């Protein structure tokens, strides 16, 4: 059960959070307390990357290296030029005409 898997430190933090939430509510600071809790949770859980880890955002990686199998404009352009996939089917004149006719010409 999840209740028993929390450490004593986690229980103390949860109880402290509820006590402070009650105080914030009495002072009409409830929304600010909730937002502050959210920001604190985000910033306290930001970690450091270990050597060799890559970010999902290529701008933060060494040599702007992307994750494997990332779909971007270069990959689409390369696939279209080599004929690997048929992206042009999505924009073909027939499909646009069919969509136009199915909407009653609107």
From TrEMBL:
Residues covered by the SAYSvFN domain: 14-80
Reading the lineage from the top rank, the first entry is: Eukaryota
Q: Which InterPro entries match?
A: SAYSD1, SAYSvFN_dom
List the PANTHER family: SAYSVFN DOMAIN-CONTAINING PROTEIN 1
Report what the protein is called: SAYSvFN domain-containing protein
Q: Which organism is it from?
A: Gossypium darwinii
